[in-house]
């Protein structure tokens, strides 16, 4: 019996050392441990033809006058979400939310199929690179549909963008997705989007310029098959945003996204 106790103690110490080593590796990993899920990344960040500004150079009044109702903008240093970022590491989220169920949605424009799975299962089974020939109706995506009560302990640490439009309030949508995934073109009210880990490429068109796309084809297929052949006058506004950058998009602007890495992100929808 004493021998068994010694063996169990040694094993438990070994497991603890492994967990500590994984945590240390993750802390030194700028991707929060999420890049360990896959070595696959998309390298093409594309051009950036959207204004990118340091928030200290743009007052709230200037934001309202220049961008709020007319065009997108990317702001750096708008908030400090260092604490939130640490809580969104792979180790931290799995520890705190691994057993909770999350709602997945199909990644196409007009389908609303939902699937509920434990967050741990989503990370283990669904969080993977996007296949180029996959259809949106077959691609399950974790973004939005967050149970605010269950995730409140996380969201209360998020510092949302301070530039709120008059007579609006913000609602959060949080997501995690693999490289090559994204949502195809759609539109809704205005909002902000911030990348916590990874890189996210954005494509936008104003309300009066509906893009040409198939509602059940993924953004990845649009980028590889349609985007390269667009006439110059049909090219989108676009940019790749990184951690610490916040993109603002105005009301009813068409937009599609493409995650270049395994990405963690949060949007603040203004309504």
Describe this structure in words.
This protein is of the alpha+beta class. The chain has 7 helices and 12 strands. The strands form 2 sheets. A 9-stranded mixed beta sheet has the order 1-2-10-7-12-6-5-3-4. A 3-stranded antiparallel beta sheet has the order 9-8-11, with no helix packed on it. A hairpin with a 7-residue loop joins strand 3 and strand 4 (114-118). It starts with a helix and ends with a strand. Mean pLDDT is 86; it is low at 3-28.
- Fraction in helix: 25-40%
Secondary structure tally, helices: 7
> Any idea what the shape is?
globular
Structural class: alpha+beta
Can you give the mean pLDDT? Answer: 86
Strand order of the largest sheet: 1-2-10-7-12-6-5-3-4
Number of strands: 12
Distance between the termini: 64 Å
What order do the helices and strands follow? HEHEHHEEHEHEEEHEEEE
**Unreliable runs, pLDDT <50, ≥5 residues?**
3-28
What value does the Rg take, in angstroms?
20 Å
| Proportion in β-strands | 15-25%
Biggest sheet, open or closed, and with what strands and sense? Answer: 9 strands, mixed
Quick recap:
The chain is an alpha+beta fold.
Fold topology:
Blueprint: H1 2-27, E1 52-54, H2 60-68, E2 73-76, H3 82-87, H4 90-97, E3 101-106, E4 114-118, H5 119-126, E5 140-143, H6 148-155, E6 170-177, E7 191-197, E8 200-205, H7 219-226, E9 237-241, E10 245-249, E11 254-259, E12 263-270
What attributes characterize this protein structure?
disordered N terminus; alpha+beta; nine-stranded mixed beta sheet; 271 residues; three-stranded antiparallel beta sheet; 12 strands; 7 helices; 25% strand
């Amino acid at each position: 019996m004493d021998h068994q106790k010694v063996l169990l103690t040694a094993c438990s110490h070994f497991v603890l050392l492994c967990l500590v080593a994984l945590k240390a590796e993750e802390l030194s990993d700028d991707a929060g441990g999420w890049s360990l899920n896959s070595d696959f990344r998309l390298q093409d960040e594309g051009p950036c033809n959207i204004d990118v500004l340091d928030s200290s150079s743009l007052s709230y009044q200037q934001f309202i006058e220049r961008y709020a109702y007319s065009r997108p903008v990317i702001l750096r240093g708008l908030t400090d979400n260092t604490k939130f970022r640490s809580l969104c590491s792979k180790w931290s989220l799995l520890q705190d939310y691994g057993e909770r169920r999350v709602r997945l949605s199909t990644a196409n424009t007009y389908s609303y199929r939902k699937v509920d799975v434990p967050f741990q299962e989503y990370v283990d089974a669904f969080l993977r690179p996007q296949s180029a020939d996959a259809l949106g109706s077959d691609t399950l995506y974790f973004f939005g549909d967050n149970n605010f009560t269950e995730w409140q302990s996380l969201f209360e640490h998020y510092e949302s963008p301070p530039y709120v439009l008059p007579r609006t309030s913000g609602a959060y949508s949080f997501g995690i997705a693999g490289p090559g995934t994204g949502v195809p073109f759609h539109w809704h009210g205005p909002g902000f989007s911030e990348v916590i880990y990874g890189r996210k490429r954005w494509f936008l068109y104003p309300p009066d310029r509906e893009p040409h796309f198939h509602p059940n084809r993924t953004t990845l297929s649009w980028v590889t098959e349609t985007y390269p052949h667009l006439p110059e006058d049909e090219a989108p506004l676009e940019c790749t945003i990184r951690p610490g950058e916040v993109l603002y998009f105005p009301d009813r602007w068409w937009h599609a996204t493409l995650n270049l890495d395994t990405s963690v992100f949060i949007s603040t929808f203004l309504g």
